[in-house]
Automatic annotation (TrEMBL):
Domain VOC: 4-124
InterPro entries assigned to the protein according to its UniProt record, in alphabetical order: Glyas_Bleomycin-R_OHBP_Dase, Glyas_Fos-R_dOase_dom, GlyoxalaseI/FosfomycinResist, VOC_core
Name of the protein in question: VOC family protein
PANTHER family, sorted: GLYOXALASE DOMAIN-CONTAINING PROTEIN 5 (PTHR21366:SF14), GLYOXALASE FAMILY PROTEIN (PTHR21366)
Organism whose genome encodes this protein: Pseudoduganella aquatica
PROSITE patterns per record: VOC
UniProt cross-references to Pfam families, sorted A to Z: Glyoxalase (PF00903)
């Protein structure tokens, strides 16, 4: 019945820091839509952004900054991702490590966004 994920919603406490991280650090594109809404575009998906306490309706029952654990497949080799993170002063919390992805083995690093969401960046192993 379900084919793929179209978008998800990230709730942040600090809109500007969040936008900076997902655009400057992760290289996603900021897209404006609707009445004052924004999203981060990457590949064929997007992440809609809600600001804590100012969420758009309908919304999750308990929108909580820092509750996400996301895994992204990189568009460049993981060693280049690691070098970019180091250059930007973004600490890698763990990795690179071997993991099991949705469709194949992956090699991953873990870091945190400004709201302390866990971000896993991976490549096919």
């Amino acid at each position: 019945m379900i084919d793929h994920l179209d978008h998800l919603v990230l709730t942040t406490r600090d809109r500007e820091r969040c936008i900076d991280f997902y655009t400057r650090v992760l290289g996603m594109t900021l897209e404006a839509f609707g009445a004052g809404r924004v999203a981060f575009k990457y590949g064929e998906q997007k992440i809609n952004l809600h600001e804590y306490g100012k969420e758009f309706l309908p919304k999750a029952a308990q929108p909580t900054p820092g509750s996400l654990d996301l895994c992204f497949i990189a568009s460049i080799p993981l060693d280049e991702v690691i070098a970019r993170l180091k250059q930007l002063g973004v600490p890698v919390e763990e990795g690179p490590v071997a993991r099991t992805g949705a469709n194949w083995p992956i090699r991953s690093v873990y870091l945190r966004d400004p709201d302390q969401n866990l971000i896993e960046i991976s490549e096919r192993a």
